[in-house]
Design brief:
InterPro entries: CD80_C2-set (IPR013162), Ig-like_dom (IPR007110), Ig-like_dom_sf (IPR036179), Ig-like_fold (IPR013783), Ig_I-set (IPR013098), Ig_sub (IPR003599), Ig_sub2 (IPR003598), Surface_Rcpt/Adhesion_Mol (IPR051116)
Radius of gyration: 58 Å
Number of strands: 40
Structural class: mainly beta
Pfam families: C2-set_2, I-set, Ig_3
Strand content: over 45%
Keywords: Adaptive immunity, Cell adhesion, Cell membrane, Cell projection, Disulfide bond, Glycoprotein, Immunity, Immunoglobulin domain, Membrane, Repeat, Transmembrane, Transmembrane helix
GO cellular component, one term: plasma membrane
CATH class of one domain: Mainly Beta
Largest sheet: 6 strands, mixed
Strand order of the largest sheet: 1-9-8-3-4-5
Shape: elongated
Protein name: Activated leukocyte cell adhesion molecule b
CATH architecture of one domain: Sandwich
CATH topology of one domain: Immunoglobulin-like
CATH superfamily of one domain: Immunoglobulins
Low-confidence stretches: 341-349, 362-369, 447-484, 492-509, 511-516, 518-528
Distance between the termini: 148 Å
Length: 528
């Protein structure tokens, strides 16, 4: 009867069933396995009789490689390609003798798949041998497919050529397949991944390691890049970078700097330092070996010049007019803002450029007056305005020190003094932005009182200078010498005299008038 086929893996143990495993051991008297040696000659392997041990008669290549399973299957170890033949199971049951032939096929997947003889680089437009893909020791011989980015390549006789060959090992009978790929590269093949693979009869596939190749081509386009801060302003640096699309990329360039030609080697950049408004203009770069291939870019340097008139320190009295004139020279449209933050400053802002000008404005305020009790002491007042909180110090020691809370940038410091001689007193105010001192003359006369006002202001946070606005108000209140007491005594005396002599009690009106005029004259002569 016709046999069936069993497939085995090369080098593994192969189980060859008897009658496809449908043998009943209790009905079998004898089971024997034999094989076709060729030319119609059989070769005995082994036999088992009922209730007896297995008897092995195999010789030559099967000696020590065969045994019988409990279900009468033939077990063949270390399968080889030479085992691809017909094995027959003969069964004797009673008076019947039946044979079951089995055809054996041995497969082997390739030992590996790799690309060898790889080219170093591919030139655009030229058919070049890329490499050889080898699948070793397979049965049947492996079929190899080339792929680019996982897409199969098909020979077209033009840009793609594939040549395949198979070599059989005479000792093992295994086949080695070699496939050579010739390929015409394109610019888009840069970074492309080339692989080869094989699908085996037993199923599954083997993929080689991917390979990338350098694609060489001449430069067709160049681009000039300007690398700088935005906006580019005077004092900045700007770097010119020339980028060419050739591979390998050029390493030497010409840079055209507003009429000046500069050649650079082993670099593609050129840096212009400390640019000015005169740097504005067109710049170019080109290939040294092909000057006609060039690229250009315009560079614009932004600038801003401002002049404030008047400037410096300005002294004005409260209520007076202050006229300011601002001159602007800028590369673009500018925006001007005036801000008073206990001072006056200016901002001009074309795009993201920003400059400040400031002036120091001192405002003199009116003197205020204050009397001490019975004219025995003087109260000196020092008022400061600024931020952070100013620190106040005096050149003399006093009593009744009083410092007001620091509110809205203002602080007032008072001391009480009883001068025994004429003094010059200093009040010094300091903070992180500056220091200033104001003085006041203090008389030893009774009933004199002084007030000193010192005003500081802070500068804007982003200004380059310290802004102090100082207002000093110095006042001396001169009290009238106590003439009234003398006048009262005089009037009393006059009244007493009149009473004694019978004159009118209200005294002499003419003398009284003269005395009042004297008092007023003395008051007007008092010093301030």
């Amino acid at each position: 009867k016709c046999g069936f086929t069993v497939v085995g893996q090369y080098g593994e143990t192969l189980e060859i069933p008897c009658n496809n495993g449908a043998i009943k051991a209790e009905d079998v008297l004898i089971t024997k396995w034999k094989y076709d040696k060729g030319e119609g000659l059989p070769g005995d392997l082994l036999v088992r009789q009922k209730n007896q041990n297995i008897s092995i008669s195999a010789t030559d290549e099967y000696k020590g490689r065969v045994s019988m399973a409990a279900n009468s299957s033939l077990l063949l170890s270390a399968a080889k390609l030479t085992d691809q033949r017909t094995f027959t199971c003969m069964v004797v049951g009673g008076a019947d003798i039946t044979e079951y032939p089995v055809n054996v096929v041995i497969y082997k997947t390739p030992a590996g798949l790799e690309i060898s003889d790889k080219v170093e680089e591919l030139e655009i437009g030229r058919l070049t041998k890329l490499g050889t893909c080898i699948a070793e020791d397979a049965n049947p011989a492996a079929n190899i497919t080339w792929l680019k980015n996982n897409i199969p390549l098909v020979a077209d006789g033009k840009g793609i050529s594939i040549q395949t060959s198979v070599v059989v090992d005479p000792a093992t009978g295994l086949s080695t397949t070699s496939s050579i790929l010739e390929y015409t590269a394109e610019r888009e093949d840069t970074d492309a991944e080339f692989t080869c693979r094989t699908h085996h009869t037993m199923g599954g596939q083997i993929m080689s390691t991917s390979e990338t190749f350098t694609i060489t081509y001449s430069t067709e386009n160049i681009v000039l890049h300007v690398i700088a801060q935005d906006p580019l302003i005077e004092g900045d640096n700007v770097t010119l970078k020339c980028v060419a699309d050739g591979n390998p990329a050029p390493t030497s360039f010409n840079f055209h700097l507003k009429g000046e030609l500069v050649k650079v080697e082993n670099t593609d950049t050129y840096t212009i330092t400390n640019v000015s408004r005169d740097t504005t203009g067109e710049y170019k770069c080109s290939l040294i070996d092909n000057p006609t291939l060039e690229a250009s870019e315009d560079i614009t340097v932004n600038y801003l010049d401002i002049n404030l008139s008047p400037s410096g320190k300005i002294v004005k009295r409260a209520g007076e007019t202050l006229d300011l004139n601002l001159l602007i020279d800028a590369s673009g449209e500018s925006k001007v803002s005036w801000t008073k933050v206990k001072a006056i400053f200016y901002t001009a802002k074309p795009k993201s450029m920003k400059k400040h000008l400031s002036l120091l404005l001192t405002v003199l305020k009116q003197l205020s007056k204050q009397h001490g009790e019975k004219g025995q002491y003087k109260v000196l007042i020092c008022e400061a305005e600024g931020s952070p909180k100013p620190v106040v110090s005096w050149s003399i020691n006093g009593t009744s020190l009083d410092e007001s809370p620091f509110i809205n940038g203002k602080i007032t410091h008072k001391i009480t003094v009883v001068p025994t001689a004429n003094l010059t007193v200093s009040c010094t105010v300091t903070n992180d932005f500056g220091i200033d001192t104001r003085t006041i003359n203090v008389s030893s006369r009774k009933s004199l009182m002084a007030q000193c006002y010192l005003l500081f202001t802070d500068q804007p946070e982003d200004s380059d200078q310290t802004k102090l606005v100082v207002g000093v108000v110095v006042g001396l209140l001169i009290a009238t010498v106590i003439i009234g007491l003398a006048y009262w005594l005089y009037m009393k005396k006059s009244k007493q005299g009149s009473w004694k002599t019978g004159e009118k009690e209200n005294g002499s009106s003419e003398e009284e008038k003269k005395l009042e005029e004297k008092v007023e004259e003395n008051s007007q002569k008092a010093e301030v």
